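Milestone M4 deliverable, item 7.
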Amino acid sequence: MDATVTRALSMAILLLSACATSTGGEARPRVAPTLAPDVKGGIAWYRNDAVLMKEAIWGEGRIVAGPRGGPPSAGLTRMPDGRWQGGGEYNQTIVLQVAPGRITGPSVNVTVTPVEGGFRISGLWMGRNADLVVDAKGARAQQIQFVRNADGSYVSGDLPNMYIFLVGEAAQLDTPPWPELALTALVGGWGVQ
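Output delivered:
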């Protein structure tokens, strides 16, 4: 990923984390983060004290994921021919083919299918099992069930110390942005085991 884009997306991550950091011991309401101007959508994972733990975001032709306040740990860039190239936590450069409902590449064979009010991701992502269903009512990542609250946060009794927000275009579950939302979830590791 070129240094200018990495710096810009790192700044977006820092902006999101600044909006989400708790200022003291008081409980804060769950509020979806505001996106930086060049970010179109993303997924944010929070602790229950409203501290952003990690996020995965996309902008024009770029997807990055990383921990709060840190540099991106993984990312993908759309190539002129429509393929996506990336690296990071995978310790290799990969090139992914994207076709309607399918993402393939070395150790990658993922299908993305619509479900009522959302989508389902299943298959092999970087040699690991990917299984995620997200809709307006809730989500299931592997065997972990989430319920979507009125504030838009996805919460799980299995993970009581965290919650997840879909922000920007990622929240458009009736018409999920293809392939950005699926790739963002996968790069962020949601439903990947």
